[in-house]
Design brief:
about 325 residues; alpha/beta; Rossmann fold; 6 helices; 13 strands; elongated
Length: about 325
């Protein structure tokens, strides 16, 4: 008994290991392979009641979102913090801040988010005093307005006096409200069509712009059909005749010789400044003296012939010397 092999003790609680057959089955088709014929599944159709319920749910969701959005927008638009409380205007000189607000049609109760900025700027530009304007928001309650006003340059004599700018456009009537403007009067514009009137007004405006600070010496400007300009000065009332620019240099020359020219030609009708380096004084025509009449009648021995009227030549403007040119500075001198 001792020499016989003892059987191996068997573990308790574990089932015996399954037997694995390593030889594959003979030519059997695998069950997990895709079948040759595809099986089509039909979609399950919803009934009319289910479709109706789904459509109602979708509509209800859309209405709920729209209602919430409308409620939020209404609360924002009704907020007191977003009402226009301040209007800051820059660039205005003639128009007051109240007039600017009146031009835009603001009452002070508008919501700043509901305002149309380009439309407000167009309302401002509708005023003849406003050349350009811009409007922008400054949240929560302020409007920033930038105004570029037209600058009156002269008074145009039409049916009444009008303020005009450098482009020849009419700005406003000259009256009690605009009486503070002391500007030269432009004549020769009455009874003309708009393009011709504006072209002549632009000639006068170009002369005034070229004169710069010497505009204060000008009292009146008459624009002739030829395009020349007759300028009446303040003070002495001398009449100057200008042609094409430059105008300022010629006026400076005349003002430097003003006293001498008046002494030499006190009766001059005008001083012609159209020529370079020359000033001509237009003298009035000399009076024509009629021939004396003999009171004693004479016997007519021959047929009387009509008396020949003496010819009077048109006066030629007498040239006056221009001011001498300044001597060149010595070498090395400062200009």
């Amino acid at each position: 008994m001792s020499g016989s092999p003892q059987p191996r003790p068997r573990k308790r609680g574990l089932p015996p290991a399954p037997r694995v057959d390593l030889v594959p089955p003979a030519a059997e088709e695998s069950p997990f392979l895709r079948p040759r014929t595809r099986t089509r599944l039909r979609a399950r159709r919803r009934g009319s009641l289910a479709r109706t319920v789904f459509a109602l749910q979708l509509v209800a969701a859309v209405l709920a979102v729209a209602g919430l959005a409308w409620t939020g927008v209404s609360r924002v638009m009704a907020s007191e913090r977003l009402r226009v409380a301040k209007v800051r205007v820059r660039g205005n000189h003639f128009l007051s801040q109240g007039e600017v607000r009146e031009l835009m049609g603001l009452s002070g109760r508008e919501n700043i988010l509901s305002l149309d900025m380009p439309d407000l700027a167009r309302r401002l530009r509708a005023s003849p005093w406003v050349a350009d304007a811009s409007v922008r928001r400054s949240l929560p309650d302020t409007l920033e307005i930038e105004v570029l006003e037209r600058a009156p340059l002269a008074l145009a004599e039409l049916d009444r006096l009008y303020l005009i700018d450098a482009s020849g456009d009419l700005i406003d009537l000259y009256g009690a409200r605009t009486a503070s403007y002391d500007l030269p009067i432009v004549r020769g514009l009455q009874g003309l069509e708009e393009p011709v009137r504006q072209e002549r007004a632009q000639r006068a405006a170009a002369l005034l712009e070229d004169l710069g600070d010497l505009q204060s010496e000008v009292s009146e400007i008459e624009v002739e059909p030829s395009g020349d300009l007759r300028v009446v000065l303040r003070g002495g009332g001398e009449v100057l005749r200008f042609g094409p620019p430059p105008h300022r240099r010629r006026l400076e020359t005349f003002l430097a010789l003003r006293r001498e020219l008046n002494e030499r030609s006190p009766e001059a009708e005008y001083f012609d400044l159209r020529y370079r380096g020359r000033i001509y004084a237009k003298e009035p025509p000399a009076p024509v003296t009629p021939p004396p009449i003999d009171p004693a009648p004479r016997a007519a021995t021959a047929p009387a012939r009509p008396l020949a009227r003496p010819a009077v030549a048109a006066p030629v403007p007498s040239p006056l010397p221009a001011p001498p040119a300044p001597a060149p500075p010595p070498a090395g001198a400062e200009h």
